[in-house]
Structures are given as structure tokens and as C-alpha cells.
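#lab-general

N.A. 3:47 PM
ok so I finally got the sequence cleaned up, no stray characters, all 514 residues accounted for. can someone with queue access submit it? mine expired

B.Y. 3:52 PM
send it over

N.A. 3:53 PM
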Amino acid sequence: MEDQQVVLDGGGMDASAVTQEEAVAYGDERFAVRFEKAANHYGLEIGPAKFRGNGRITIQGSVISFDGRSCRLGWLCKEKHFDVPDSDAFNVQRSDKAIILQLRNSAGTFFSIRITASSTLAAARLASRLPAHQTPEFAVASAERSEFHERLDALSPKAIAVPVLVGINIVVFIAMCVSGVGIFTVDGNAVLSWGSNYGPLTAGGQWWRLLSNMFVHFGVIHVSLNMWALYASGRTVERLFGTGRFIVLYLFAGIAASMVSLLWNQTVNSAGASGAIFGVFGGMLAFVMNKRNEVPQSVMIEHRNSTLGFAAYSLFYGVAHTGVDNAAHIGGLVSGLAMGFVLARPLTSEARRAPRPASFWLSVSLGAAALFALSWPMTHPNAQTARTRQFAVLLGHLSEDENVAVGATNALQQRTTSQKLSNQEVARELSSAVSPKWDALYSEVAAVQLQPGDADFELHNLLLQYFDARRQQFALLARSLPNNDMAILEQSNAQRASADKALSELKAERSKKP
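B.Y. 4:20 PM
back already:
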């Protein structure tokens, strides 16, 4: 076994690196490990069994021994032991505490085993004791990855923008929590005040929401998942594009995602960095799949598959669960892919050092033109969209206006009892302070002319019925009191019953809304 330092798959052993010659001094050695989602294992005598959970690897001379629990059917587990000659162990990769190696069985087929050691140092020692055999394909891919990462480290050693973006998002979320928005259960109206993306307001002139909504989130889980995804993937993408171009990619994808979200559903209150993060994934795809960027085939396949897999899972999750803005995700992914092709430069010193302000500003101009094109249907809505927006704006303040009317009604009732107002006084108060408020509510709703094909047509009709019944109830009551007209009072009571029925139906209708 040749003497070499084991530094596998970018794991970076640094000062803890152990050479094969030094490892011999350890003698026979046992390593406590955990078997992680192991594939078909070595040796036909094990059949379809799979090692799972805690176990042990022992290296004795030229033999590698595996001990652990082998499970069938997911739950029927037995203790198993098998030995492998080191000549049948290949392609060791290590990253931190994780190790992946391939074993060859008697049929010449390779199977992968993934294990996790107890510590980074233990993983480094175990990796150093395992054989250095590599298949030709793996050796080529490993060399390509090493060369690619060396170029990346030399040209763009660190990411600057991503940690700043993560920090801004976290600071904004903390400020939201301090203001009372909520940590786990969030008040959607409160998030709206912080700049979430709501069609009637955004398209009504508050265009800054297209940007601000990228920095506000619906709860600690939402912000945590988004920031983890941004930090995990964004740093590599920033280094591939360069900080300036990455910022353009991120902001363009985020704003485009916000626009697509509004075009898909005008009345959704959306927020979060996920649209921009999907744009980062799109930029990654654009970079590695473009041959002019000189990305090795093995690196391209690795990043392409992992990015597409994550995006597909996220989109499927969004379809299966309510409350996920898949329109923003798709918009971010596509816009990031498109902008990534325009912004990407080959990972060479010549391409990175050559001043190309013209190409950069051309990319910015193309992005601005694309955003303008997306904004056109938002600023020039059709009649149905305009009605939907108008009704959504009405709903935004209707509850508050109704509370004022209900408050005035209750206040008069309390005064009638406490101050023993006469019928004439109550009638005057009803006509001057109560009825006008219910008349105004009815007029507000009636001013929005929804059509039978509109999504909120039923809700609109129920609101009209409710406010019409309330206004007539109090108008009739004011007429009946001065002369104790029982016929008019019965009409007032009938309108009260109609209002109560409409209110019950309203609550049922609103409960259907997401």
C-alpha cells in the first residue's frame, strides 16, 4: 500500500492528516461507526440485508471486518459480521466525520457504504487505514474535482455577500419578533406591515414590496430553513460568479419570483427568501451546464443532479402542502437559470481578471428589461383582475371598519341601560351615530362590482346581504321607537335575523379560504 496523505473530497484533514505509513503504527484498530443508509452490502451470503445504526469496523492487517445490525424488511435485525480483503475496497471519500467507500463482491459488482465516525479525527484515522485503491473512473473524477476546487480557491477564495444576506435576514426577523409579529405562529397582517408581497398593495403602487418581502419571513422555522439553504449553497455560487454578479443574480431572481407569484395569485400574502434562493440554484445549474465555463464533466453531473433533486423535492413538497408559494419558486429557478447564463464567466484567471464592464451592464440591462416585461400585466390588469384587487383591498380594511360600527352599536346599548335613555333619544342616536356607519359599510361593498365568474363572488354577495340587513335593522328600529310601532319593530327584528344568518354563512365561506 503506497504511502500517501489522505485528503478526500474536499474534506480537508489539515493538521489532523494521517499518512498510511503512520497508520501502520496503530496496529490492529477498531473504530466505532454508524452505518448510514447503506446500499447492498458485501458478500452474497448477506443477501438483501442492510447494515443500519451503530456498529464497528476493525482493520487487521489486510482484512477489513464489519460488525453491526443487519436488517431485513426494515425492522427484523440481527447482529452480523463479515470480513473483506483490502483488495476489494475502493474509492474512499471523506468529508468531516462521514466516509463513503465502495466494496467489490465476488461477481465484480461495486456497492457503496456510507459510515459516520465518532469524530473528525477518528474519521481521518479510519480513512488513512482504508486502502487507497481507486477505479480508473473514480481517479479521473477525483482529479477533476481537485483541479476544479483548486481553481475556485485561487480565483475566489471566500464568499462575502452570502453571510451578509443571511445576517440581514436574521436581524430583520429578530426585529419582527421584538415588535410582536410572533416567533412560531405569525400574524399575517403584522408581516404585511413589514413589507410582505400582497398583490393589491404591491400593484397598487407599493412596488418596494417586491424587494422587501425577500427579507421577511413567516416564523422561525421558515427563516431557519431558508437561511440554511442560502448559506449551504449560496457560498459556492457566489464564488463561481463573483460577489458583484452574484448580488445581481440574487436580487433579480428574488424580484422576478415576487412578480411571478403576484401574476399567479393576486391575493396571496407571500414573503421569504426562497424565490431568490431558487434563483441561486438556477444560477448554479446555468454555470455548471455551460461548456464555456470549463466545468469538468464529473463536477457538472454532481452539481446538476443534486440541484435538480433538491429543486424537484421542494416543488413536490409545495404541491403536497398548502401555504407554499410554488409560483415564486418556479419563477426564481427559471429567472436564476436565465440570468446565470448571461452573468457566468469561465473559471480561469484570464476571464476573471479581464475588465468587462460592458458585458456586466448588458446583463443588468437585460434583467431590467425582463422585469419591465413582467410588470406590464401587473400595471395593466384586465377587468377581472382589477375587480379582484379592488375587493382584496376592501377586505383589508373592512374588518376594522366593521369593528367601528359594532363598537358604536354596543356603546349606544350600554348608554341606553346605564343612562336610561328615552326611546326618542335612542332613535336620534341610532339615526346619527349608528345607522350611517352601517350605511357606509354597505356602500363600500356595493361599490365593488364582482361578476358571477369571479373567485370571490359568493363572499361579496354574502357581505352585501349582511351589511344591507344590518343597516335596515337599525334604520327600522329608529323609526319604530318614537311611537312604539310594533309592526316596524317586527320588520327590524326580521332584518336582525337575516343579518345573523348572513353572518353565519359569511364565517363558513371565509373558513374555506386558505
